[in-house]
Amino acid sequence: MQCREPEAPLAKLLKFRGTFVVFTLLLSVSVCSQLTVLVRLNDGQITEELLEADSEKDIITVEFRQTDGTLITFLSDFKRVSINPTKCISTTPEKGQSQYQALCFISHLDHGELIPSEAMARLRQKNPHVVRSADERCSVEQFTMNAALNMSRSWHLSTHIHNVCRDARDLVYTRQQDVKYWLEKGVEGSVFDVFPQSLNVTDLQSCSSTTDPWQPCACSYRLNLEWFPCQLKYCRGQGSNPYKCGIKSCSKGYRFDFYMPHKQLCLWDEDN
Q1: Under 8 Å between Cβ of 233 and 245
Q2: What pTM was estimated for this model as a whole?
Q3: Using CA atoms, how far apart are residues 232 and 114, in angstroms rounded to an integer?
Q4: Domain segments of the chain as ranges
Q5: What is the pairing mode between strands 147-149 and 192-194?
Q6: Contact at 8 Å (CB) between 11 and 24?
Q7: CA torsion angle 12 20 115 150 (round to 10)
Q8: Which residues contact 85 (CB under 8 A, 6 or more apart)?
Q9: Residue 270's pLDDT band (cuts 50, 70, 90)
Q10: 30 pLDDT band (50/70/90 cuts)?
Q11: Which neighbouring-strand residues pair with 83?
């Protein structure tokens, strides 16, 4: 793709899959921003995706609703120890269950998975009615969530976890490998509850094959993040130094495997 010098002094004009001027990167300082993007889900349906960035707090939030009504919140906190809480709230009543059920998965966020919050805060969209598709589809990443988070102590890890995960109550999961990483970074051990060996997810029977509704089992949840800015694009102008001239968007799938105290709390896995 050939890039050219912008016509306006305060903007960089971008190209996105053959469509001109989809996003504009402003050069002025921006602390907070909100962007709404229409994206096509895996089943062909269209949903509205809300992206928020706060460069001062160094966080990015992506939120959208799946066609089954489940609300997905994907928050990235770069400022503390790079955490990524993903909250899933199912709003469909199931067999006498409450009006909704929430899950929350906490994982370590590697730098480079998302563009910096400062760059996200500068994004502007000029064609809000265009349905977006990702430039690149990444492979599905599998997470074995074999540890839990103590919500009353979660602020030691990130002050945002309580707000994002409060609806999940006791169903807030993480991985032992992430626990080890955070402990090495100085996070207090009281934040985490490591499951005993008898509750090892890989050794438990899957909830989908368990007949007893009150038996502990290994539950699975899958989700797709269909569109998010994953990398910055650089172009060369008349000078020798490249400049930021756009973004690359990605799509990525996630599968979470985790302990459930009884099958009754994992009815979507039964449906699958």
Answers
A1: yes
A2: 0.79
A3: 9
A4: 32-265
A5: antiparallel
A6: yes
A7: 130
A8: 73, 75, 77, 104, 105, 106, 158, 160, 161, 164, 165
A9: low
A10: very low
A11: 77, 108
